[in-house]
Write a structure and sequence with these properties.
With about 600 residues, the chain is mostly helical. It has 25 helices and eight strands.
Length: about 600
């Protein structure tokens, strides 16, 4: 009688994803069909395959069902030897006989009836299509392509589960035979967590927990197992621990409690599961691993491809910080690197924009992976340097760029870098971001980060450095805009004291050149030109050149009223400076 070698029982906690399971049944029903479930490790590909196998056996008991682990050549061979033993194929014990070919011949024989094969975890295409070896010695044997042992027989079908879209496509003959398995939707994730929990009386926190776990089935099962095993652990307490800090989150995501319905060689830790994908990419194409490493420090949503293209050129390894093992033939082509990450379901891109995104847990686990070989700090430094170059000042012309990049720099505001070499880049980002927030009217947040920028620049460059004076000047304007005149006066005095040490001429020249350039390129009424007028007026104001400052304040204020409107915060701030100067001049008389 036909039998099944599926090593897993039907899961009573299985949460159906009807569209996907229906697609598998439909695709595998055709004679000689091949289909593939592709997605991240832990999203439930193998569980869908197990469910399909049990459904098939119930509907068609005369069908042979073979489960073949395909993550390595050794596992594939072991599975075929097991099939040969179960089928009692003559000659299987003869050491001169190729067992793989024996099983393949049996599968090709339509007289043996219908069969279905699950090729599980076929992530490495090298298992089935070994790469040709390079070098002068052509006598070295190349492993046999195991793809020849997957017959295209009219009486059989093959269902592949894989993390690699490229590997799956080659095995099943095209993208039309593939379905992407993503995270569950929220209702499915909640249902799965409730099924896995022993105590289902607590409702508080269930929706929030599946959300922070990204609706990833393996992460949900991992959390439920920990909650069930810990006497005093509840959903709410687990959620609180998970959110506490990165160290605690890492500890929870690294736990491996075991699962009877996962391959014995597979980890039940979501971190370890995904690190297998990272290592495979690192092996296939190191430059793609570099790209993933840099992306892990961005906000997971809205990552600009244009920034990545500039800042993922090949890094030069140093003695203390070896990056990855490059070879001379690695061209580091960005598009190919990105395609590999997309093929492994680690990154998503949109056809109509410059942006891409990655799952928040994938991002966290990538950083954990980097930490495992002491590269996290190096890539964090690389990311901060990129943001220092890319995030512009808060001038009106830069607002769109600032808006795109702001979610990626915002997490920097909370903590000063431990490495001294990062402080200059950090202060630069904070100063420009503070300028942008000031121009957008977000005064409180702008003041908070500008104060940090000023203190840092004073520490690393001194009170009289040009970079410090720029930040002090922006902060003074911001404080004045909020009506904090005493604090603004203090900042102005500090700026004045610094400029009195010889910076006036350089600062004036810089502002005049900026104004002339903007008038020529943008016109006299452009908001950025008016900002240059405003800054030059402020500079003359600090030098007590009242008449020159008054004329420029008046020009900037009138221009802002026409372009931005009377009620705009920048217009009001400029007008207030003009009024303050008039009052100063009246008192002086």
């Amino acid at each position: 009688m036909p039998f099944s070698t599926v090593p897993f029982n039907r899961d009573p906690d299985f949460v159906d994803r009807p569209n996907m399971l229906a697609w598998v049944h439909k695709m595998c029903a055709a004679p000689g069909s091949r289909a593939a479930l592709v997605g991240l490790g832990g999203v439930g590909k193998s569980q869908l395959a197990i469910q399909y196998c049990h459904d098939l056996r119930e509907a068609s008991p005369q069908t042979w069902v073979f489960w073949v682990p395909a993550n390595t050549r050794a596992r594939f061979e072991e599975a075929y030897r097991g099939i040969a033993d179960r089928l009692e194929i003559p000659g299987r014990n003869d050491p001169k006989i190729d067992t793989l070919q024996l099983v393949t011949n049996w599968l090709r024989d339509e007289g043996n009836g219908q069969w279905a094969m699950i090729l599980d975890n076929a992530d490495d295409i090298g298992v089935f299509y070994p790469k040709q070896k390079r070098g002068r010695d052509d006598s070295e044997d190349i492993p046999a392509p195991f793809a020849v042992f997957l017959p295209q027989s009219q009486n059989g079908s093959i269902l592949v589960t894989s993390r690699s879209k490229d590997a799956a496509t080659r095995l099943v003959g095209g993208y039309k035979n593939i379905i992407n398995v993503n995270a569950m939707d929220e209702s499915q994730a909640i249902q799965l967590l409730r099924k896995k929990l022993c105590d289902t009386s607590e409702e508080d926190g269930i929706a929030a927990l599946v959300h922070v776990l990204g609706c990833i089935p393996l992460a949900i099962c991992q959390a439920a197992t920990y909650i069930n095993q810990s006497a005093r652990m509840t959903v709410s307490r687990y959620l609180e621990e998970f959110r506490k800090n990165d160290k605690k989150k890492s500890s929870l995501l690294n736990r491996d409690a075991g699962d009877l319905r996962r391959d014995e060689s597979a980890s039940n830790s979501i971190v370890t599961t995904w690190e297998m994908s990272f290592e495979q990419i690192r092996k296939e194409r190191p430059s793609a691993a570099d790209l993933l490493s840099l992306m892990s420090f961005f906000n997971p949503q809205g990552i600009p491809e244009s920034v990545l293209r500039v800042h993922t050129t090949r890094a030069t390894p140093t003695v203390n910080q070896p990056i990855l093992d490059y070879n001379d033939n690695d061209v580091g082509d960005f598009d190919e690197d990105l395609n590999i990450l997309v093929a492994y379901s680690l990154v998503r891109v949109t056809a109509d924009s410059d942006l891409c995104e990655m799952h928040q847990l994938v991002q966290f686990c990538t950083r954990e992976w980097l930490s495992s070989f002491d590269q996290a700090d190096w890539w964090r430094q690389r990311f901060m340097a990129a943001m220092a170059q890319e995030f512009p000042n808060g001038s009106f012309v830069n607002w769109a760029r600032c808006q795109t990049l702001f979610p990626h720099v915002a997490p920097m505001f909370e903590s000063e870098p431990a490495q001294e070499e990062l402080l200059q880049d950090w202060a630069h980002v904070l100063s420009n971001a503070g300028w942008y927030l000031w121009m957008k009217g977000q005064y409180r947040e702008a003041e908070r980060i500008l104060v940090k920028a000023v203190k840092t620049r004073e520490k690393i460059a001194g009170q009289s450095s040009l970079s410090t004076l720029v930040s002090v000047g922006i902060l003074a304007l911001l404080l004045q805009s909020q009506g904090k005149y005493e604090a603004a006066e203090e900042m102005n005095r500090r700026a004045l004291e610094g400029r009195e040490k010889g910076k006036y001429e350089a600062a004036e020249e810089m502002n005049r050149r900026a104004l002339e350039g903007r008038e020529k390129a943008l016109g006299k009424e452009h908001p950025d030109t008016l900002t240059s007028v405003y800054c030059l007026a402020f500079l003359f104001h600090q030098q007590q050149q009242h008449e020159a400052a008054l004329a420029l304040y008046q020009r900037a204020s009138s221009g802002y009223q026409r372009v931005l409107g009377v009620e705009h915060l920048t217009t009001k701030a400029c007008s207030q400076h003009y009024i303050s100067l008039v009052q100063e001049m009246q008192r002086g008389r």
